[in-house]
Amino acid sequence: MSVKWLRMLPWAPLVFAAAGCGGQAGPPAPADTAAARSALHIVLDAWKKGETADSLKDRRPPMYVNDYEWRSGRRLLGYEVRNDDLSGGALRCRVTLALADEQGHSVSKSVVYAVGTNPAVAVMREEDP
Question: How many other C-beta atoms lie within 10 A of the C-beta of residue 28?
Answer without folding.
Answer: 17
